[in-house]
């Protein structure tokens, strides 16, 4: 029998609809920040207070993926309307995608896409269904672009930002769903813990001596796919492409050698670092470029990450399970309930948590 920490139902909580943030905080760093600074204490701050909780020599590890306008609309040759959500580029102009309605898009079907400034499809961008993908329920699409260009060269003309379905408002701008440091195209969703940072906040952290390192994980179905098995140990994560460079490995080694802390910004940065370490049979972090299907839940033995900046996640999600592995499921649920009572904002455009490793007494900021 699975333990309580291994049961999907143990990660459920009731969230009032009004607590789901529809727009981001403006400025970004005015969002609230729940700081967990040891195994027994926490406090309520704002994100611009982050420098009070970091120390010279700490290393922030951020995911530099950039969200592409991955939602496309078109017409199947023959007449049916089609919606496509790009997930992952397999090879040049071949993409794994979720499609609606999937049952009508069998191998060989052809889609013509509708530009944003037109009402009808054009032959400038077409795609052929090559195969179905059992793991995601999606399709492998081969895109045919006018003048033999890459899809990413023309996607701004056809695609829209793929905001999560729980964001029903239309008041946010596409750039508000990008981190200020995003520079690697390829993500179907934002690494939302990074949305709180501003250039001014980074300047302040630089002056303090807080370092930064960048990994890449292009967010796809692995991150937001729901856990559907009551015994969560039976859940299989879909692989996502990550890159952890030799420079990042050196920065982490130097940080730890000097007594600094490695603070991952977002669960995707966690999965990148721990996934790279997990790819090495010894568990030692080495440079890595490839896919990770790592699923982190309570009982996980941490190899790289000391602390975490993260948002408040959906009930029963693999992201909640990852955070629970760092601070404990029961404590996380208690903190979520307190945040709900104090009217924190949840999910992608919502507020943040900072989870720090144990700190020696008498070294907390003066509050």
Automatic annotation (TrEMBL):
Pfam families reported in the protein's UniProt record: Queuosine_synth
One of the record's GO molecular function terms: S-adenosylmethionine:tRNA ribosyltransferase-isomerase activity
Location(s), subcellular: Cytoplasm
Domain of life: Bacteria
One GO cellular component, as annotated: cytoplasm
InterPro entries per the UniProt record, alphabetical: QueA, QueA_dom1, QueA_dom2, QueA_sf
Reactions performed catalytically: 7-aminomethyl-7-carbaguanosine(34) in tRNA + S-adenosyl-L-methionine = epoxyqueuosine(34) in tRNA + adenine + L-methionine + 2 H(+)
Keyword line: Cytoplasm, Glycosyltransferase, Queuosine biosynthesis, S-adenosyl-L-methionine, Transferase
Pathway info: tRNA modification; tRNA-queuosine biosynthesis
Biological-process GO terms, alphabetical: tRNA queuosine(34) biosynthetic process
Assembly mode: Monomer.
Function: Transfers and isomerizes the ribose moiety from AdoMet to the 7-aminomethyl group of 7-deazaguanine (preQ1-tRNA) to give epoxyqueuosine (oQ-tRNA).
NCBIfam families for this protein: PRK00147.1, queA
PANTHER family xref list: S-ADENOSYLMETHIONINE:TRNA RIBOSYLTRANSFERASE-ISOMERASE
Family statement: Belongs to the QueA family.
Protein known as: S-adenosylmethionine:tRNA ribosyltransferase-isomerase
Organism whose genome encodes this protein: Romeriopsis navalis LEGE 11480
